[in-house]
């Protein structure tokens, strides 16, 4: 073991913290004896003067001492914790783009789900409206329910059967005033 350069006297709270692998804070240091430089070995004693450990100082001022430097064998853990902190800091710097990407992916996912639901709703509406539309063949060959005409054996009309009497005429045979009147009564915004 290396030669010790000084002693650190600590209170009961600091002793308990060190025994539980916690950091040594400046408030827990009662007294420092000797001239201690960074990297020097120090003896750690409790308030009764009983030796509880040996550690390595991190600097001339013990307010900067850390648990990893004061607990025997814990120097390696301290280096690991500093390295873990550097890795954590680097991860936090990288995590902002990751969080942004995560938020964008969530927005994209929910937009896709919402778009799918809207699309399914529109498809259902179109199908329902399409069921109510008349068949294309019915539009090509309309059934006007014309009256049934009964003739005698000489070809003379005897009787007409109808619910409503409809007579087919050509478009050219309808007077223009009738066309205008029909349009005016059906849709005043048409003209």
> Measured on Cα atoms, how large is the radius of gyration?
49 Å
Report the CATH architecture of the domain at 4-73.
Roll
Enter the CATH topology name of the domain at 4-73: Archaeosine Trna-guanine Transglycosylase, Chain: A, domain 4
CATH class of the domain at 4-73: Mainly Beta
Order of helices and strands: EHEEEHHHEEH
Distance between the termini: 108 Å
Spatial order of the strands forming the largest sheet: 2-1-3-4
> In percent, how much strand structure appears in the residues?
15-25%
Question: Can you give the helix content as a percent range?
Answer: 40-55%
Helices and strands: which structural class?
alpha+beta
The CATH homologous superfamily of the domain at 4-73 is named PUA domain
Structure description:
It is built from five helices and six strands; from the N terminus they run E-H-E-E-E-H-H-H-E-E-H. A hairpin with a 5-residue loop joins strand 3 and strand 4. Among the domains are: 4-73, PUA domain (Archaeosine Trna-guanine Transglycosylase, Chain: A, domain 4, Roll), CATH 2.30.130; 148-186, no CATH class. The chain is an alpha+beta fold. InterPro entries: Glycosyltr_51/Transpeptidase, Lysozyme-like_dom_sf, PUA, PUA-like_sf, PUA_sf. Keywords: Cell membrane, Cell shape, Cell wall biogenesis/degradation, Glycosyltransferase, Membrane, Peptidoglycan synthesis, Transferase, Transmembrane, Transmembrane helix.
């Amino acid at each position: 073991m290396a030669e010790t350069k000084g002693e650190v006297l600590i209170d009961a709270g600091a002793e308990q913290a060190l025994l539980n692998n916690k950091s040594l804070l400046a408030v827990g240091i009662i007294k420092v004896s000797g001239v201690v430089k960074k990297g020097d070995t120090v003896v750690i004693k409790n308030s009764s003067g009983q030796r509880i450990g040996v550690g390595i100082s991190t600097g001339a001022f013990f307010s900067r001492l850390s648990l990893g430097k004061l607990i025997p064998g814990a120097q390696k853990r301290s280096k690991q914790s500093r390295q873990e902190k550097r890795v954590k800091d680097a991860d936090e710097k990288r995590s902002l783009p990751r969080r942004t990407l995560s938020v964008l992916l969530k927005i994209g996912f929910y937009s896709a789900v919402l778009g799918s639901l809207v699309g399914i709703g529109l498809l259902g509406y179109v199908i329902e409206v399409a069921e109510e539309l008349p068949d294309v063949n019915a539009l090509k060959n309309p059934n006007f329910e014309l009256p049934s005409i009964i003739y005698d054996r000489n070809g003379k009309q005897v009787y007409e059967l109808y619910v409503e009497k409809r007579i087919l005429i050509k478009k050219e045979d309808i007077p223009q005033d009738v066309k205008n009147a029909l349009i005016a009564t059906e849709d005043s915004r048409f003209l």
